[in-house]
């Protein structure tokens, strides 16, 4: 029996060794498969990381572009707002100037009728040109005039336009206030500017 026991033992040992080799082969296959899967996962991880970095950089660039565009839009909105404010101010100033001009022209018209002195407004400011109609009980006399405003004093202007008329002083004060002074100022500013 001993022979069989040794044979059985040897056979059992060989069977165990064969079983161990089979297990070793299956473990080796599993290990190889695991390492292949691990390598594949690492490759996929690196690929995904590279794609993630590309997408992240693209998002960063697009965000910077959006921020620049937003800044440009904000700057344009600010400039548009400033331009609108300036336009409103200019319109208000133009309306105010227009109203002043209309009021001044109304006063000039009233003064023309009251003083019988008619001035060609198109000739202003380079020269003062017009006619003074002096009415007497007998007839009307026309006194035309044309002169450069800067070359004469207010007294000389009064003498040129109204001569020895009785109301020359009152006339000249009103015309000086409404027209002549502003004409002189415009001419002085234009000569200073050039």
UniProtKB/TrEMBL annotation:
> What UniProt keywords apply to this chain's record, in alphabetical order?
Coiled coil
Q: Which residues form a coiled coil?
A: 38-93
**Source superkingdom:** Eukaryota
Q: What name does the UniProt record give this protein?
A: Kinetochore protein Spc25
User: What is the protein's species of origin?
Assistant: Bactrocera dorsalis (Oriental fruit fly)
Taxonomic lineage is:
Eukaryota, Metazoa, Ecdysozoa, Arthropoda, Hexapoda
